[in-house]
Amino acid sequence: MLNKNEARQRRARKTRARIAEQKTNRLAIHRTNLHIYAQVISACGSKILASASSLEADVRKELANGGNVKAAAVVGQRIAEKAKSAGITAVAFDRAGNKYHGRVKALADAAREHGLKF
User: Fold this and answer.
1) Does residue 71 lie within any of the structural domains?
2) pLDDT of 102-118, one tens digit each?
3) Dist. CA 53–CA 55, nearest whole Å
4) Domain count, the chain
5) What is the mean pLDDT of residues 51-76?
6) How would DSSP label each residue in 57-84?
7) Phi and psi for 65 in degrees, rounded to 5?
8) CATH number of the domain bearing residue 99
9) Is residue 118 a part of any domain in this protein?
10) What is the pTM of this model?
11) H helices within 1-118, ranges in order?
12) How far apart are CA 14 and CA 67, in angstroms?
């Protein structure tokens, strides 16, 4: 029987294998209790093309807490803007095995609203 983290990692592996077949840039997220992080990773998987997190100074000034839905929406907006400035419009969403709910959903919706397609 898998524990909670092993089950999440198994789901993440399956998703990443499917994204690797597509040979497209991926928007990977990492979620902790206190913060949320997002990176656009190149199709080959060796280069970070854009990144944003609730730890950045600009975001910290704006928000009191980096571990809530509001913070995730701000990070989603920033990653979309940074990706567009790097010339990236379409990505595959890698939710790292997390449920598409709450902060993960807020980040994805904000990125879509600001012009990132996935």
Assistant:
1) yes
2) 999 999 999 999 999 99
3) 5
4) 1
5) 95
6) HHHHHH-S-SSSHHHHHHHHHHHHHHHH
7) -130, 130
8) 3.30.420.100
9) no
10) 0.93
11) 4-22, 57-62, 69-85, 103-113
12) 26
Cα separations in angstroms, 114 against 17, 61, 88: 27, 21, 12
Q: Is residue 21 part of a domain?
A: yes
> Residue 54 is part of which domain span?
4-113
Q: Name the amino acid, one letter, at 72.
A: A
CA 69 to CA 34: how far, in whole Å?
Answer: 11
- Give the CA distances from residue 84 to residues 1, 30, 100, in Å, rounded to whole numbers and listed in that order: 42, 21, 23
Residue labelled with tokens 């994805």: 108
SS3 27: strand
**Does residue 1 carry a pLDDT above 90?**
no
Q: Locate tokens 């600001």: which residue? A: 114
SS3 assignment, position 30: strand
Q: Is residue 43 part of a domain?
A: yes
In sequence order, the 6+-apart residues with CB closer than 8 A to the CB of 61 are: none
Three-class DSSP category at 98: coil
115 touches 84 (CB < 8 A):
yes
Distance CA 72, CA 66 (A): 8
